[in-house]
Design brief:
single chain; alpha/beta; 7-stranded mixed beta sheet; 5-stranded antiparallel beta sheet; 12 helices; 20 strands
């Protein structure tokens, strides 16, 4: 998966010579406030959803090319106004190549045949998620962005599907939901508090963790390959609709009428069912570190990586201001290299688990970290053997702090 973006909101020159950023299993964006991290994440989310809609047949490429239709899709994240006459947005996904090159010029090309379809569940986790905990009637407030409302719906669904206490990535902290009285609870060391009255860190962490855990579990293995055919393990709520079933029925009836081969009809049914049912989970998270102590930030990052690893097709895309998250990713990548070595002793594995759980590791080839500079440019963070370098924008700020602190002490001595 690749993305090119230029002259769109705060992103001016974009990335590199050809402009294409590679979107891998784990992709992170860092940079100063207002430099375009979230802009890239929101544009990518929109384009992935457009590809998914084209696969499902929600609309055709001809309909999308009608005046204003493509730009209107970016209203979901309130970034439609970011377009200018010379905006360039180009996306190469698993199934479609979508290129917008200014002044309404839109090209759409299918890059893979739709013989076997695999669509994702796409979740955008906004930074405003902590509002959910303190405003119980949030869903009726006007002017909320559609993306926030979508997240709120998933949060409510995850709460209602919670069957027992959920352990959070903070020592001895649990979340529960009283369905009868519609009250979310936080319990720590046997002290129980309403979520709305709990610490701001919990109000930020719980919506993110709850929804991510729920969707990651929902899409552990929606379908699998078997004997060259697609076998449906389960059909998600997106698949079971009257319109989808009618569409499937009509397609099969048409095939029978035209005396199509039975094998072809079965394959057509499998393809349509797969296109209705997400097989994996793409988690796009703004600022996982929000309101969290550094140790909790790292634990949260490891949890999100674990959810990514539930399914080899899953993707995790993160925007951040936190140097601790970059360091956590470096630990996860370094640990993966060690875990992959043959002949590790039980003691080594135990010691590794205390630093980075095996399920939270990620290969250096699976990750990319990009930085935005506030001038409209995007660059790839330097790495050493695939592991993000500690010489980066966020760590440099910590270095500046230490240097300035030393200068103050020297001035005091003088």
């Amino acid at each position: 998966m690749k993305l090119k973006i230029k002259n769109f909101g705060p992103i001016k020159n974009g990335f590199g010579e050809d402009g294409f950023m590679e979107i891998t299993d784990f992709t992170m964006f860092i940079g100063p406030p207002g430099s375009g991290k979230s802009t890239i994440a929101k544009a990518l989310s929109t384009l992935m959803w457009i590809e998914k809609a084209l696969i499902r047949g929600d609309f055709t490429d001809k309909e999308l090319k009608l005046p204003g239709r493509f730009r209107a899709r970016f209203d979901f994240h309130n970034i439609k106004s970011y377009f200018s006459d010379d905006s360039v947005i180009e996306y190469v996904g698993p199934m479609y190549h979508i290129a917008y090159r200014g002044e309404g010029k839109l090209e759409i090309e299918r890059v893979e045949p739709l013989a076997v379809v695999s669509i994702p569940k796409i979740m955008y986790v906004p930074s405003e998620r902590n509002f959910i905990s303190v405003i119980p009637t949030l869903s009726v407030i006007r002017d909320l962005s559609p993306s926030f409302i979508a997240f709120l719906d998933e949060y409510n669904k995850a709460q209602k599907n919670l069957k027992e206490e959920l352990e959070l990535p903070i020592n001895d902290v649990f979340f529960s939901y009283d369905k009868l009285n519609d009250i979310p609870w936080v319990k720590r060391h046997e002290n129980k508090t309403r979520l709305s009255q709990s610490a701001s860190g919990f109000q930020s962490l719980i919506p993110l963790y709850l929804v991510s855990a729920f969707l990651a579990n929902e899409h552990k293995s929606s379908f699998r390959a078997s004997s060259g055919q697609i076998v449906i393990d389960k059909l998600g709520p997106e698949a079971i609709t009257t319109d989808n079933l009618k569409k499937l029925h009509d397609e099969l009836q048409e095939g029978i009428k035209n005396k199509q081969d039975v094998t072809n009809l079965i394959h057509k049914a499998q393809k349509m069912l797969a296109s209705m049912n997400p097989s994996h989970f793409i988690n796009i998270v703004e600022e996982p570190e929000q309101n969290l102590f550094p140790e909790a930030q790292i634990n949260m990052m490891f949890a999100l990586l674990s959810f990514r690893n539930y399914n080899e097709k899953n993707k995790l895309i993160v925007t951040t201001h936190s140097p601790y998250l970059i360091n956590a990713i470096s630990l996860a990548a370094a640990a993966k290299k060690v875990y992959d070595k043959e002949g590790l002793s039980t003691d080594v594995i135990r010691d590794l688990e205390l630093i980075v759980p095996w399920e939270a590791t990620i290969g250096p080839e699976q990750l990319r970290v990009y930085k935005t500079d506030g001038e409209g440019n995007v660059s790839l963070l330097e790495n050493i053997d695939g592991i993000p370098s500690d010489e980066n924008y966020l760590n440099d700020l910590l270095g500046d702090f230490n240097e300035n602190f030393g200068k103050i002490l020297e001035l005091g001595d003088e």
